[in-house]
Amino acid sequence: MKLDAHWMPFTANKTFKQDPILMESSSGMHVTTEAGQTMIDMTAGLWCTNLGHSRERVAKAMYESAKTLGYVSSFNLGHRASFELAERLTDLSPGNLNHVFFSNSGSEAIDTALKIAMAYHAAKGQSGRKMFIARERAYHGVNLGGTAVGGLVNNTRNFGRWGTVAHLPHTLDHANNAFSRGLPKIGAEKAQALADLIALHGAENIAAVMVEPIAGAGGVLPPPVGYLKELRKICDEHDILLIFDEVVTGFGRTGSFTASIEFDVVPDIYTSAKGLTSGAVPMGATFCKDFIYDAVVNSVEGIEFWHGYTYSAHPIACAAAIACLDIYEEESLFTRVNEGIGDYFEEALHSLNDLPHVIDIRNYGLLGAIEFQPQSDGLPMGSRVYKKAMEKGVMVRGAGDSIILSPPLIIERSHIDEFVEKTRLAAAEIA
């Protein structure tokens, strides 16, 4: 089999194709390669297989949908599953986030959120509000809008920023908060940088502030205690919308349906994807409050929001999401983190603080990161540990000088013990 035809995403293509790792099957907490190696998956695929791999019930729901209604456009047409799914999701959402726009990925959900924010202000007669404030080390997908608001340098290096964006400083503070458990105690004052940016650029020009409640790809950065509440307060003072990117933090990852519920801070818009279908099929969703939907929908006659995708609310994706919701609720997975497994994961993660070169460990719910001291040869430690861990039979994610953990919500203590044992073996070989 030739490998050149497939240009792989976020991959060192030449390196991979010299020694490819090809997956053959997956089940529950494990994935198996074509070579026969079985690995425990501590990344939930890519933050997404919250229910574990290859849930038969989800596959059956998709199959039945494909047999009955394989596709229908959502442009001026509908199907019952999309309305059922929307109602169930909004019932679970906090506050009056009662409207959901379906897309096909987190990246599309982000761009949808940016457009909704601008459409809202235009409907209110403030079409000049097109600027966004985001945060350093943020990942908001890879479409042009999400790339513009993102705060990871490599993702914009060759593409620039297609929009007017300012960035808040990130909240990572090794000096004061290294090895924090849960939310760092110091750093809420960093939110005041938002007030400074508003004073500099003018509230009349700013559509929204977008942040991840817990930064994911930027290194798993939990917010300092009180930080998100302060952002909410400042946005309210200046009539600026607050958008939470919950693509990673939704669907039980933090111990609640959303991190906004967990942290008791309700945004005006939030985005979702990944856990929505537990990775079984692409789907994204953007939620907004009543006042935003009402302003846009009541602003004109005819089509109110010129935006959408061929596969928005795809019947098979809706069927998968509904099946996933059934499983989440029947197995109490939205809150399972708070029933002991989150504490066990935290203890296990911090037990690795004596590994060679470790300078920080961060965690919240079933999210975690172990950060290593950068090495003089410039090869990121995250990549080194990732490769060695794979050899030992555990899948982590390398991100710069960190490894990131986001295991499926079905994880048991024995899986966590296995992760600790094999990660120790991997790190020892690097030292």
Automatic annotation (TrEMBL):
Its cofactor is pyridoxal 5'-phosphate. Signal peptide: none annotated. InterPro entries: Aminotrans_3 (IPR005814), Aminotrans_3_PPA_site (IPR049704), PyrdxlP-dep_Trfase (IPR015424), PyrdxlP-dep_Trfase_major (IPR015421), PyrdxlP-dep_Trfase_small (IPR015422). Gene3D superfamilies: Aspartate Aminotransferase, domain 1 (3.90.1150.10), Type I PLP-dependent aspartate aminotransferase-like (Major domain) (3.40.640.10). GO terms for molecular function: adenosylmethionine-8-amino-7-oxononanoate transaminase activity; pyridoxal phosphate binding. It comes from the Bacteria. GO terms for biological process: biotin biosynthetic process. The keyword Transferase applies. It holds the Pfam family Aminotran_3. Keywords: Aminotransferase, Pyridoxal phosphate, Pyruvate, Transferase. Belongs to the class-III pyridoxal-phosphate-dependent aminotransferase family. This is Beta-alanine--pyruvate transaminase. It comes from Arenicella xantha.
